[in-house]
Amino acid sequence: TVAVVLFTSDLRLHDNPVLRAALREADEVVPLFVRDDAVHRAGFDAPNRSAFLADCLTGLDAGLRRRGGRLVVRRGEVAAEVRRLAGETGAASVHVAAGVSRYAARREERLRDALAGPGCVLHIHDAVVTALAPGRAVPAGKDHYAVFTPYFRRWKAEGVRGTLAAPRTVRVPDGLVGGPVPDRDAVRNVSPGLARGGEDTGRRLMASWLDGAMADYQDRHDDLAGDATSRLSPHLHFGTVSAAELVRRAREKGGPGGEAFVRQLAWREFHHQVLAARPEASWSDYRPRHDRWRFDEDEITAWKTGRTGYPLVDAAMRQLAHEGWMHNRGRLPAASFLTKTLYVDWRVGARHFLDLLVDGDIANNQLNWQWAAGTGTDTRPNRVLNPVIQGKRFDPRGAYVRRWVPELAELAGASVHEPWKLERRERARLDYPEPVVDLAEARSRFERARGLS
Ligand code: FAD
User: Fold this and answer.
1) Where do the domains of the chain lie, and which CATH numbers do they carry?
2) How far is the CA of 312 from the centre of ligand 1 (A)?
3) What is the pTM of this model?
């Protein structure tokens, strides 16, 4: 018998329940990735993610070939491609990981329709993209947790499934044609400092993280200049590292660093279970509000290009453009600045992040944006992050700002966070913009809009 394995956000051979189930059931498998036209139409195939994806698919193909198999890559509508390939190979089943987004729900629906009728069974596997299946832990009478702390308590108590080894061999039908695996170098407009993708890279990063810097995570994860977080987010997004395996191994290592890291992984799981229950929250307010956002093109451009005149925000936005990645302590003030200080709709920021982030993820990006904007699950939705205070706290020596905003490289220490305090002549010498908005005025505007004053 033959089974199709449809890879989606699980581009790995290790700890992959989808692949293992197919190999258990069938004599031969057809490993398939479809470059779905729907992803392209939604503008979700941004260059940075396309380049990273190309690395992942190249690695997956190489890993399969080492085991006697190969990856089939097709382009088109995912359900139609699956049906065609299942027909061509006489497959009796199709295996795929359950997703949490509306897009994934539609994909599952289309697959169900395409495979309806006798002959081919669809298997959708839970706990592949996340360690715990969304909906597995819910408060009594509800379909998801809306507050992180009780979710975390429950999530911790649930435990994690065992880790599955990578298969030794993968038998594919004779004469199976692979189709061209995309080439990273063919992707244009990629950020110059973009990380490499692929399962081997992800597993090396995971191993060195677990054996090294994770031990200091609780003390260093907020240190912007220290850059001491795992940088595993793109691997978790594409599934080149398994969330379940990572949680299990970080727990085994333990210690304050391991515990703090696992808590952060639980934030990912939390947002996934919110989105699974409320798929419309990808673009609609999770908690509806009725005041109007502002829309000032020049201010939005200043924000996007890292020229707001607020050094921390500008440094963060420039890191995003250069690396396709941004430190969490940069994402928070950058998002707060757009949505609370400039009072611009969070969807504008979320879209821009999705255009650039290599880890750009509907659950994590949209729900973090909503959290920062006060339309989501934040229990203090009216808190406004002051970029100067944030800068002094998380970049006390100013090294992060100096790294990303070379115009300010000569300024010493924390003075880099307040260039407007320099003498006028000195200030004029720096080719750095004046603040795009006055923070106190912006704050009053925010309070008026939210009915707080
Ligand atoms: P680490 O600090 O090493 O954390 C380990 C992992 O935990 C991360 O890889 C991630 O999977 C998870 N994690 C950590 N913090 C969060 C969080 N706040 N919410 C959800 N998961 C978290 N993360 C994404 O993966 N994709 C996104 O598109 C995304 N967009 C964001 C947008 C905004 C406005 C904000 C405030 C945060 C966003 N995050 C997003 C969450 C977080 O900033 C990143 O996951 C983190 O910076 C990735 O770096 P890391 O892997 O080194 O994280």
Assistant:
1) 2-127 (3.40.50.620), 130-162+200-277 (1.25.40.80), 297-449 (1.10.579.10)
2) 18
3) 0.98
- Ligand 1 atom at shortest distance from the alpha carbon of 265: 7
369 lines ligand 1 (CB under 6 A): yes
Q: How far is the CA of 164 from the centre of ligand 1 (A)?
A: 25
Closest ligand 1 atom, CA of 234? Answer: 25
325: left (phi over 0), alpha (psi -120 to 50) or beta: beta
Instruction: Give residue 125 CA to ligand 1 midpoint distance, Å.
Output: 24
Cβ of residue 317 lying under 6 Å from some atom of ligand 1? no
42 Cα–ligand 1 center, Å: 22
Radius of gyration over every alpha carbon of the chain, rounded to an integer in angstroms: 23
ipTM of the complex model: 0.99
Closest-lying ligand 1 atom to the alpha carbon of residue 233: 9
- 8 Å CB contact between 35 and 49: no
Residue 368: CB within 6 Å of ligand 1? yes
Cα–Cα nearest to 87, from 36, 125, 32: 32
DSSP state of 213: G
H-helix segments, 115-240:
148-158, 199-211, 217-220, 233-238
Q: pLDDT per position in the chain (453 positions), as tens?
A: 999 999 999 999 999 999 999 999 999 999 999 999 999 999 999 999 999 999 999 999 999 999 999 999 999 999 999 999 999 999 999 999 999 999 999 999 999 999 997 789 999 999 999 999 999 999 999 999 999 999 999 999 999 999 999 999 999 999 999 889 999 999 999 999 999 999 999 999 999 999 999 999 999 999 999 999 999 999 999 999 999 999 999 999 999 999 999 999 999 999 999 999 999 999 999 998 878 999 999 999 999 999 999 999 999 999 999 999 999 999 999 999 999 999 999 999 999 999 999 999 999 999 999 999 999 999 999 999 999 999 999 999 999 999 999 999 999 999 999 999 999 999 999 999 999 999 999 999 999 999 998
| DSSP assignments along 251-264, one per residue | HHH-HHHHHHHHHH
